[in-house]
TrEMBL record:
Name the UniProt record assigns to this protein: Type IV fimbriae expression regulatory protein PilR
GO biological process terms on file: phosphorelay signal transduction system; regulation of DNA-templated transcription
Residues with PTM 4-aspartylphosphate: 65
Superkingdom field: Bacteria
Pfam families associated with the record: AAA_lid_14, HTH_8, Response_reg, Sigma54_activat
Species this chain originates from: Thermosulfurimonas dismutans
Length: 448
């Protein structure tokens, strides 16, 4: 079976996963399941054989059985967290070993699985680990590419907002380039510190406070050393909080205090620390509506809603499409040492398309097209469904036409939900009112 390519961090850099499982059949099944998703996998039957792999490879996620011959899974977990605290650990346990699983969580494991379990449950947990790993990996920013007057006006306003120390709120649909605009503001601000970005939707609630504010040694089981948080790392620079609407309410009050006083406490400490990190927040949600639903604090909303920038969707600035296509063609031709060009007919298709996923969707389209094309990108290579997103064959009997129409509508809704949520499956499933297993099945069914 051909392996799918999964991007769990920087381009082309898939998650590195270690399986430690003494049952050969289970170990091979795990390995096959993960490799079919495009992950790089090492599998060993014991903790003793895992140690050399851990010392030689940068493992992102370790999947450990609790009961292992020789050193136990819990002992190996402690070794991993001692030498590589950034490695996320999933524990596999039998029904009667729940106490071991709870002990593992307290010792720093991300989560646990109870045998027997559905493969979808495992893959969902691995993806969540991957989201955490991607937060810690440095990302290479791209430039802001535009031609439209509306973007010129927006960047002019952004330069004006760059100098004050007040927080900035960036609004816009998923994929429009909110982080790129935040980086642009940081560069124009004259701040010498780092630009630190975090996606609030990707952080599990139980880890959010520790990641944002840091923690002291002994703050919780597994906290063997003190660690600075993102606010400290952004000292003298900018902290970009993407999807601010997903921040847990309990942490919103602590963020508000930081915005008002410039003060915070690490988890497990009473000592007040200061930071002059500038906050830039972004969202594709209606925060005012979130306030009405009591999902977002009103006082934090008013604090953020002062310097506001709204990035228009790509469908409202079609003049930018040709510039973006040229940029992405140069980028991917250089990456793959190719010289692919786009035909006028394919460019016309792009100009007619509505781009629900905005610039990110256009980038993915060109990336794929460069990979699969010989010398030129044609409309057939793009495979877009423009003007209505689907065509109904009126020559089909009604009994056959209706299922096709319903399938087209379902596919369109799936794509829009995934784009709106930045392909975070938990949120997309919630938006659609289905469970994650159903969402995964439908994505496979429609090839999304």
């Amino acid at each position: 079976m051909k392996r799918k390519e999964v991007d769990s961090g920087p381009e082309g850099d898939s998650l590195r996963i270690l399986i430690v499982e003494d049952e050969k059949i289970h170990r091979e099944l795990l390995r096959k399941t993960l490799e079919e998703e495009g992950y790089r996998v090492w599998s060993v039957p014991s903790a003793e054989k895992a140690l050399p792999v851990l010392s030689q490879e940068e493992i992102d996620v370790a999947i450990l059985d609790v009961r292992l011959p020789g050193m136990s899974g819990l002992e190996l977990l402690e070794r991993i967290k001692e030498k590589s605290p950034e490695t996320e650990v999933l524990i596999i346990t039998a029904f009667g070993e729940i106490e071991d699983a709870i002990s593992a969580i307290k010792a720093g494991a991300f989560h646990y699985l109870v045998k027997p379990y559905e493969p979808e449950v495992l893959l969902n947990l691995v993806r969540r680990c991957g989201e955490l790993v991607s937060l810690r990996r440095p990302r290479e920013p791209g430039p802001l590419v535009y031609r439209s007057q509306v973007m010129k006006d927006l960047l002019r306003q952004a330069e004006i907002f760059a100098r004050p120390e007040a927080p900035i709120l960036i609004l816009g649909e998923s994929g429009v380039g909110k982080e790129l605009l935040a980086r642009y503001i940081h560069e124009k601000s004259g701040r010498k510190g780092r630009f630190v970005a975090v996606n609030c939707a990707a952080l599990p609630e139980q880890l959010f406070e520790a990641e944002l504010f840091g923690y002291e040694r002994g703050a919780f089981t597994g906290a063997e050393t003190s660690r600075s948080g993102l606010i400290e790392e952004a000292q003298g620079g900018t902290l970009f909080l993407d999807e601010i609407g997903e921040m847990p309410l309990v942490l919103q009050s602590k963020l508000l205090r930081f915005l008002q006083e410039g003060e915070f406490r690490r988890l497990g400490s009473n000592k007040i620390l200061k930071s002059d990190a500038r906050i830039i927040a972004a969202t594709n949600e209606d925060l005012k509506a979130a306030v009405s639903r009591q999902k977002f604090r009103e006082d934090l909303y008013f604090r953020l809603n002062v310097l506001v920038l709204k990035i228009p969707p790509l469908r409202e600035r079609k003049e930018d499409i040709a510039e973006l296509v040229a940029y992405f063609l140069r980028k991917f031709n250089q990456k793959y040492q190719k010289d692919v060009k786009i035909t006028p007919e394919a460019m016309e298709e792009l100009l007619r398309y509505s781009f629900p996923g905005n610039v990110r969707e256009l980038e993915n389209l060109i990336h794929r097209a460069v990979l699969v094309s010989g010398r030129e990108i044609t409309p057939e290579v793009l495979g877009l469904e423009t003007k209505g997103e689907s065509k109904i064959d009126l020559h089909l009997p009604l009994g056959k036409a209706l299922p096709k129409v319903l399938a087209d509508v379902e596919k369109l809704l799936l794509k829009e939900a995934l784009e709106q949520t930045g392909y975070v499956q938990t949120r997309a499933a919630e938006l659609l009112g289905i469970d994650e297993k159903s969402l995964r099945y439908k994505r496979k069914k429609y090839g999304i």
